[in-house]
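User: Show me a protein chain along with its predicted structure.
Assistant: Here is one chain, sequence first, then C-alpha cells.
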Amino acid sequence: MTAQVINDPEGYAGVLRAAEACAEVDMVIAVHSMITGSAGESMARDLAESFDRSDKPTACCWLIDQKNGGEFLAFLRQRGVPLFSSPRECARALGALARIPAPRPGVPPIGPSRAPVLVDFPPGLTEYDAKRALKAYGVPIPREILCLTFAEARSAAAELGYPVALKVMSPAIPHKTEAGVVALGLKNEEELMNAYGRLRERAERFVPGAPIQGLLVQEMVEGGVECFVGVKRDPLFGPMVAVGLGGIYVEVFRDVVLRRAPVAPQEGEEMVRSLRGYPLLAGVRGQGPRDVEALGRLIGAVSDFACGEKDLLELDVNPVMVRGKGRGVVAVDALMTKGGRS
C-alpha cells in the first residue's frame, strides 16, 4: 500500500488478510512510515489481530519516533509483535528464522513427561546444583563430592584418587576462574591443604561475605576435546540449543550451531558435524575420532532439560570433555540461570 492508507486505514486490514491467504507469501513484514493519529491506532490494531490469527511469521518495522508513535509501539510489543527499527534488521531476522530446520520426524513436540527438578533448587544456583539437576536428565558428570571442612575435602580426595580439582561453590561467584577460586591438578594432600585455605581467602576478597555452599572436590577429567552446549530461552521462540567447540577453539573458530528445542540425539550429532571445527572431533594428525554419538546424546538430554524445566532461562555446560570413540563425554562444569538469577 502507498501513503493513501492514511486516508483509507480500513484498507490495511484487507491487505493483511490477502497476505495471510496467499500461498506464495511465507512471511509478512509490515513497514510503516510516519503514520500517526487515528490511522496509526487502526493500523496497530489490525496488525496485532493479523499476528494473532495468522500462522505465518509476521514482524513490523515502524519508522517513527517515540514522541509520535510510542503508544503504537508499546501496544504492539504488549501483543507480542516483533518490532524492528530498520527494514534491513527485520529482513535479516526473518531470514535467520527461515533457515531454522524443520523438526525431525519423531521428535516429540514437548519435553519429557517427568516432574521438573528445578523447583526443588534455590534461586541462586552453583555449579554443584546445576550438575545435579542435569544428572537427573541423564547428563554424565564427573565424580565429585561437596565438602564443608578440610577434613571432608581430604577424605573426598582420598576416595576419588589424586589428582583432583578444588572449586569454591557460591551463588555469588558464578564465574569462578575470574575470581581465582579454582585449583586444578592437585597431586597430594599438601597441595590440597594449601589450595583449600587459599581459595577460601580469595572468595572472601572477591565477594566479601559471600555465602559459601562448600568446596567441591572433583576428579580430574582429561584426554578429551573441549566442547560446550548451551541453552537460552527466547521469549518468542522458546529454548534454543547451541553447540560449539570449547576452550581455545571458541576464540579460534567462533562457530556455533543453533537449533530450536526439542533436539533429538541424532539431530544433535548433525549439529556437531556441521561445525567448521568438526575435523578436530573426527580425528586429525594421528588423533583418533571422538565420541560424537555420546555428544549427540548429551545434546538431546540438555534439550529435554530445557523443554521440561520451564524455570530455566540460560544454561552453559562448558567444558564438555569429548573422549575417544566409545568412551563417552563428561559435563565438567555448568552455569545455570533460573528465574532471572544464576
